Amino acid sequence: MGNETDGAVVVAVTGLPGKSGRAGRIWRGADTDSVTVGTVGSLSGVSTNTGNVTLTALNAGDLTLAQSVSTAGFGAASAPSGVVTLTASAGGAVNETGGAAVVADQLAVTAVNASSLTSSGNNVAVLAANLSGAGAAFSYTDADSFKVGTAGSLSGVSTNAGNVTLTALGTGDLTLAQSVSTAGFGATSAPSGIVSLDASAGGAVNETGGAAIVADQLAVTAVNASSLTSNGNNVAVLAANLSGAGAAFRYTDTNSLTVGTVASLSGVSSNAGNVTLTALGTGDLTLAQSVSTAGFGATSAPSGVVTLDASAGGAVNETGGAAVVAGQLAVTAVNATSLTSNGNNVAVLATNLSGAGAAFSYTDTDSFTVGTVGSVSGVSTNAGNVTLTALGTGDLTLAQSVCTAGFGATSAPSGIVSLDVSAGGAVNETGGAAIVADQLAVTAVNASSLTSSGNNVAVVAANLSGAGAALSYTDADSFAVGTVGSLSGVSANAGNITLTALNAGDLTLAQSVSTAGFGAASAPSGVVTLDASAGGAVNETGGAAVVTNQVAVTAVNASSLTSSGNNVAVLAANLSGAGAAFSYTDTDSFTVGTVGSLSGIATNVGNITILAGGALQINGDIRISGLQTALSTVDGQIDLRASDIEVGATVSAKRVSLDVFGSSSPAQHGQISGTPEGIIIASNSRLDPGHIQGPTGTDDFALKLSGSASSSQNRGTAPFGTPNTEAQGLRISLPDQGWLLLEPHANTLWGTSPYVYLWGAASVPLSSIHYEFKGLAGNVQFAYNNVLANTPEIAAALLGGLAPVRESSREVLAAGFSKENVSKQVTDGSVVAVGATETAVDNVVGTGVVPPFQCKGFMTHAEIGCQ
Fold first, then answer.
1. How many other CB atoms are found less than 10 A from the CB of residue 779?
2. CA-based torsion, 777, 779, 783, 787: positive or negative
């Protein structure tokens, strides 16, 4: 039975029905054990008119609502004034059955055992609850919006490791104004227990005023934007789903957090809404399940930004196939971070790792761009390695910089940047984005270009596997082609390679550059351009080589590419620095020609040394600048060494050394041959043994070697007709048309008794050849078609020349071929001499030659009167 007064009312309930009180009255009921709010006769439930209701079950008694408890009278739909306090704290539980509901302004629930108030008719504004029993779960459902707050003396919702499930139906929001904890009030560490916050019918879940969630696991479902960003939040595992289009989700945890599975909910997903997950302190953020802004199961990169933040002191990592699927991804952390799931799919990535040496790795299922996401731009570490990988046929585009020295660094720090699209894509830079690191490794299939003037690395290695795919790399200053991780050198599959060092930077090949892939020995297709023209040099070290079809070298300072492994078909080079020398060695035959806009080889008074393992074809000019206008004052020497040398362009220097060594053995000499328009101009030159081949056709070929330099070689004095005679002499194949000029110093040939061996087709008589030999003195002996010049006719013909020399505008032909001293010792001891100041009619041939022998500067065959 019960009592009712105008003041405080205390009702003792022994299985009695609920009571209806007047407005403002407080209705209290207590029972020594279990009690049920039900129907007695025509009276159902407990109701007041905005008055507080307190129901208590003592001892181990349960409090069961079989009928509603309301402070708004029967039938009220909105939450009125009044507090309902349901207490079974002595040892029982509080539950609803059969659709019974609580309608009030505030609801306070205290119990020991698992309690469930999940009627869809519940409607309160504020909820507070405490369940003290170990593992006792608490569930509450409200018809619309409600708040976890303070009801009477009770604040928040807490359990002792028991699960908490709070649900707002309709379009109701669930707001935490006080904490929800599965560790009781004041707990700071994540205990056992799951907190489920459900506004999936149409609302949002938010925290205000420092309220926090402390539990082992947290599941959040909502429609609208939801924010749980209290610094006090502390859960071990988070799962969330926001279904509303564009609805954002934010969660902050006081330390480490894992995105995982909570009951039936896995990962964190939104419908094109931004997702921000933050781990404070030294906490790590681990994705054990996926984070997606496209809902569950999406594979394409949708709208929405995912921000993973462990910048206070932790790391961000993926495990077990978890992935990030979003329009943009921003990652900030202190420690090493790895997001390498094959399922990752974002359009734009930005990252900053601040910890010294902390590495960052990201893998995407297809194309992505390093760009700006929120306040984070590019990918940066503090001397930590960066590895970016695009799978499938995906491209990797740098629209913002990748740097291992933090944002804005300009010098090359520690750290390796690896850009990998080897599955099928390309790597490119746009908009001034740059790479700043100690080392850079690039692997791709398609043409890739990293040509920002801001790039600054110490070592580069790259491999492009796609047929014909070109690679271009530009660095702000010096860099080396070397080994980065498991990748060595720069290689392409018949694609062009362009390497450029800006400013005064040097380009050093410490590992090979090849357009035939790793290990190729033959010269394939492709052009290699090595450019240090802004102020540096190009050099090879440690056996590194260039293997390609064509190579172009531009530099300022002395450059040397002398690896025996070099193998190119065409070479062109230009060194602009005063006195800078250029050296190149090739494993076999090649041509000095045109590569792109560069033709031949040119230096600025720097020596040029070319060594071909096979034949050397000269189709582009080889020049030491200034020669044409200041031949007597410009220094510099050109050394050409090959098995055969064919000249089809101009070779010009103050000194030229030609060494033809043959292809079978040192004793088998090759040849120097000319094509139309070919010309060698030199002073003080040395002519080493070999074979000079005149051109065919009507154009001129000139080989002019003059001065005082002498060869150190001595090929012996064996006469012609004995074995190895050609190996011991200079073989000259006479042209059938045009003309051949040979003007060496007496010692410019070689040895103490040198031989000149002339070779002409049997059908070409000696008298039809247009050639001239000048300045030959001493014991030089001639032979024609392997016959020693032992007749006056042949000797005189060799001395005088067989036809007039035609004039030409070329400098070598305009040098003034007037009378010179000509002396020749013939086999019978006779000497033919023409004085430089004598007139033609004043010359008389000496003993052994039938007079009259006259000379008019250059004698024709008809003018030789010794027949």
1. 12
2. positive
Does pLDDT of 777 surpass 60?
Answer: no
pLDDT band, very low/low/confident/very high, at 774 (cuts 50, 70, 90): very low
In a domain, 838, yes or no: no
Residue 1 included in any domain: no
**Could you tell me the two tokens for 493?**
């599959």
- How many domains are there within the chain? 3
* 399 in the same domain as 326: no
**What are residue 863's phi and psi, to 5 degrees?**
-90, -5
The pLDDT of residue 533 is 98
In whole angstroms, what is the distance from residue 157 CA to residue 152 CA? 13
Answer for the pair 410, 476: CB distance below 8 angstroms, yes or no.
yes
C-alpha dist (Å) from residue 119 to 17, 140, 166, 230, 739 = 20, 8, 12, 30, 114
Those residues whose C-beta lies under 8 Å from the C-beta of residue 600, and which sit 6 or more positions away, are 572, 592, 593, 594, 620, 621, 622, 623, 649
Beta bridge partners, 823, equal 833
297, part of any domain = yes
Name the residue range of residue 768's domain.
Answer: 679-817
Q: Does 427 lie in the same domain as 306? A: no
Residues 800 and 695 in one domain: yes
Residues 299 and 363 in one domain: no
Sole residue written with tokens 């459902």: 141
pTM for the model: 0.81
pLDDT of residue 656: 64
State whether 689 and 812 are in the same domain.
yes
Query: Are residues 262 and 197 in contact, defined by beta-carbon separation less than 8 angstroms?
Result: no
- pLDDT by residue (tens digit) across 261-320? 999 999 999 999 999 999 999 999 999 999 999 865 545 557 999 999 999 999 999 999
Q: What is the 3-state secondary structure (H, E, C) of 438-451?
A: CEEEEEECCCEEEC
Residues 289 and 240 placed together within one structural domain of the fold: yes
Q: Among 17-21, 252-256, 756-760, name the most confident range.
A: 252-256
Q: Rounded to whole angstroms, what are the CA distances from 554 to 490, 567, 597?
A: 18, 18, 11
> Among 405, 437, 457, where does a domain finish?
457
Q: With respect to residue 379, please indicate whether it lies within any of the assigned structural domains.
A: yes
CA-based end-to-end distance of the chain: 164
